[in-house]
């Protein structure tokens, strides 16, 4: 008899899982139905700011595989604009709304994968749901922004929130020639890195003409039709022809909660085991909506990143296909480029480490991306966070010019293996003058952190 | 009473050791004398091809610290143009020749560090020791080459040997506008990477106009004064105004052998323990002349690279300064850029793995340095070598365009920790569209290698 796998959500996690399951079980033994609320499957949400910033040409460029490709090549039914509105785990079925026709129907399953992703945060403030105010999550969002920018005489952009998406969108707005005001509730942008390194990001943004309004809150947005909008903040008013929200997101778990599928109190994600099984028989979860184990804090968390969605989706799909795989957890590795500044992080920053209960010892080094004498060598800062006494690596952060930040991956591999900074400083990394100094920045950072651990001991 | 440390050789290993010892013991308790045959201390030999290729402006750029800086700042007596001609370990002294005056004298020591480096291979062929034929090891060699190129009407360069130095020098000669013939004894250039990836290097070189003469041996060099030279090879004759030798090197251990200090039969390097102590009381060794433990083959070897010289020198110096450090071994990581092609390697290639007794399973992937849709994304190939059955990573090789090959460091960190490719494929590496696809090339390589290991099992 043919089994039925129903996947809720057709982006990275859902489609990775569907593809892996299909590789292991043909359509004759496993029917796969993916229900996706939006218009696209398997798209690069991370690419949207670059599409709007005209680095990437076309919407199609951001789609890895279309529903038709899934259907024709992989025999996976991916129904877009179909929203799952309820899950009945006792009956083994989901209630689906076809957003085109408004029709609702039941879809039975043997196995159910929850891959609903995350929902962007959108505070309940006057005018924030009006026209001209946009979130940045789906390709439809991106298209709506572009349509708005093309239709209106846009000169002033207001971006709310200075995390990855907010910063990338602020830069995209500058590239398009608008004045940009960036409003951030806290005292600095890019709070995923420590303050000492983060100041470079603020400098670079201001250097590109972005006006930063820190410790400022949005109060309301007034809409004046063709005359644009007026954004009222805790520190005054700003004109706006477009408002972009980059306030972060939370796991999309309403459906799971309503169905009685356990969701972590602290993490806010669907609780899963090492194979991505939820706590209810026949239900699985992967991607932004699922908990992941953080290998350094050792606590469950959620992180809305495509890298993790792809990996957890793959693991779920291998298991759903009858094979065996486990997901070993995350480090919180991330990288971005803002106004010419590259930023990388893995593991815990100094603040994070304290919050997790560690006693960290830190070292920050100024170094270069290539040999010091190389013509276009660029500057970079590396901060290494180690545990007091043991010298165990807890995290690393990199801020610098072109060619700096992908080195964060070497720290990530070291952190994964719970290396001490003393051991890391001896690792046989590569060197040639066009690529680094003879002591790679990773090694220099580890050396200085080890010096700091020793100095702390004899304090 | 003041102790005396004598260091033979004033480049990376010797000066790293001297500096580390000095940091721990002041001049009142430890006198440090460095005896260097050449004219410079602490210089970047790796930079010489770029100096000759006019990427780097001046000889001074390649000197990290001068003898005077060592003397004035670190209270280290670095005597250049002083050659140690004999070691008497019973008496605890070395015999030194001042190459300027020809005078010889004895220098007593309490501790002796051997850091003589490597000697370039120079076959005993007619004419190979004549004018216009150059090795590339010291800054004096570099200066001699430049003086020759400036003085003569140079049009034809012949480079012998297609390893790192030979290839880099061939490119430098093209950049200077000469015709370049590269002669290589074996069937391909860059034999430190497997043949399947190496072919790209040959293509790139030929694309730049370098004429490759493979499976060809130099027989003799005839000197015709101002009319240049004629290089006779096993496949014909070539005109040459300059001949560059890039035939590799061997550990410089004559001094040690003559003094009865044990040298490894297979490795050819001075035998040392984990703290860099030679097998004779009071004698230490570091850098190109010393054995290192290869963490993958598990055999002693020698590798002439600045990275390893700096690290082993540092470890020796910490111990000589009365502290404690051990050197954990090498992976054979290396990187270079030849005619626009980046090349990286770590651990064992497919051929190396067989030679070491492993049964390897390999996978090669074609991927991109940035998101596939990014405007200037570049192509790269990754080859991953894993152990059959266990899936343990044994090595990796990368060949590609700009932005490819520093990723070898992530493989190196994984290899250092004896990870399996299955575990590696889940490591939380960074992603953003300007830096990689959502599955970084390292992860894609690991995935494909794991697929290959599984496929091999069910074969």
How would you describe this protein?
Two copies of one chain form a homodimer. The model of chain A has no long low-confidence stretch (mean pLDDT 96). Helices cover 26% and strands 27% of the residues of chain A. The first copy, chain A, is globular, with a radius of gyration of 23 Å. In chain A, strand 21 (334-338) and strand 22 (341-347) form a beta hairpin. In chain A, helix 1 runs parallel beside helix 8. By secondary structure, chain A is α/β, with parallel strands linked by helices. The first copy, chain A, has twelve helices and 25 strands. In chain A, the strands form seven sheets. Chain A has a five-stranded parallel β-sheet. The first copy, chain A, has three domains: 3-118 and 250-320, FAD/NAD(P)-binding domain (3-Layer(bba) Sandwich), CATH 3.50.50; 133-247, FAD/NAD(P)-binding domain (3-Layer(bba) Sandwich), CATH 3.50.50.60; 340-457, 2-Layer Sandwich (Enolase-like, domain 1), CATH 3.30.390.30. The interface between A and B is large, with 64 and 64 residues.
Question: End-to-end distance of chain A, in Å?
Answer: 70 Å
Overall average residue pLDDT of chain A: 96
CATH topology of the largest domain in chain A: FAD/NAD(P)-binding domain
Rg of Cα set of chain A? 23 Å
Supply the number of helical segments of chain A. Answer: 12
The CATH homologous superfamily of the largest domain in chain A is called FAD/NAD(P)-binding domain
Q: Uncertain runs of chain A with pLDDT below 50, 5 residues or more? A: none
| Structure classification of chain A | alpha/beta
According to CATH, what is the class of the largest domain in chain A? Answer: Alpha Beta
* Spatial strand arrangement across the major sheet of chain A: 3-2-1-7-18
Chains forming the largest contact: A-B, 64 and 64 residues
Strand fraction of chain A: 25-35%
How would a crystallographer describe the biggest sheet of chain A? 5 strands, parallel
Tertiary shape of chain A: globular
State the share of residues found in helices of chain A, binned by percent. 25-40%
Tell me the quaternary state: homodimer
Tally of separate domains of chain A: 3
What is the correct CATH architecture of the largest domain in chain A? 3-Layer(bba) Sandwich
Write down how many β-strands of chain A occur, each being a DSSP E stretch of 2 or more residues: 25
């Amino acid at each position: 008899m043919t089994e039925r796998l129903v996947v809720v959500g057709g982006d990275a996690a859902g489609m990775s899982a569907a593809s892996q399951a299909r590789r292991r079980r043909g359509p004759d033994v496993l029917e796969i139905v993916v229900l996706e609320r939006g218009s696209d499957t398997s798209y690069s949400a991370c690419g949207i700011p670059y599409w709007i910033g005209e680095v990437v040409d076309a919407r199609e460029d951001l789609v890895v595989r279309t529903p038709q490709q899934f259907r024709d090549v992989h025999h996976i039914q991916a129904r877009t604009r179909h929203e799952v509105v309820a899950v009945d785990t006792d009956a083994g079925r989901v209630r689906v709304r076809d957003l085109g026709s408004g029709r609702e129907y039941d879809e039975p399953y043997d196995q159910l994968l929850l891959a609903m992703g995350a929902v962007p945060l959108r505070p309940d403030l006057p005018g924030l749901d009006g026209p001209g105010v946009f979130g940045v999550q789906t390709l439809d969002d991106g298209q709506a922004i572009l349509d708005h920018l093309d239709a209106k005489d846009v000169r002033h952009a207001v971006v709310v929130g200075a995390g990855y998406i907010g910063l990338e969108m602020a830069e995209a707005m500058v590239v398009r020639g608008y004045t940009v005001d960036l409003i951030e509730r806290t005292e600095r942008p890019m709070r995923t890195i420590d303050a000492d390194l983060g100041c470079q990001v603020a400098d670079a943004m201001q250097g590109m003409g972005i006006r930063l309004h820190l410790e400022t809150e949005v109060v309301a947005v007034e809409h004046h039709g063709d005359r644009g909008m007026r954004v009222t903040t805790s520190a005054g008013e700003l004109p706006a022809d477009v408002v972009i929200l980059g306030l972060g997101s939370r796991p999309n778990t309403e459906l799971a909660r309503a169905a009685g599928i356990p969701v972590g109190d602290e993490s806010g994600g669907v609780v899963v085991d090492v194979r991505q099984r939820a706590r209810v028989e026949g239900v699985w979860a992967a991607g932004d909506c699922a908990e992941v184990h953080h290998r350094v804090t050792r606590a469950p968390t959620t992180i809305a990143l495509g890298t993790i969605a792809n990996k957890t989706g793959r693991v779920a799909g291998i298991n759903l296909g009858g094979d065996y795989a486990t997901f070993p957890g995350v480090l919180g590795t991330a990288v971005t480029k803002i106004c010419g500044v590259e930023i990388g992080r893995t593991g815990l920053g100094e603040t994070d480490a304290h919050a997790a209960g560690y006693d960290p010892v830190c070292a920050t080094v100024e170094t270069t991306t290539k040999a010091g004498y190389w013509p276009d060598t660029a500057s970079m800062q590396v901060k290494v966070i180690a545990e007091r006494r043991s010298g165990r690596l807890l995290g690393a952060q990199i801020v610098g010019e072109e060619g700096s930040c992908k080195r964060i991956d070497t720290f990530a591999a070291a952190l994964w293996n719970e290396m001490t900074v003393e051991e890391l400083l001896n690792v046989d990394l590569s060197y040639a003058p066009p690529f680094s100094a003879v002591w790679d920045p990773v090694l220099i950072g580890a050396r200085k952190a080890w010096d700091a651990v020793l100095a702390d001991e004899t304090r």
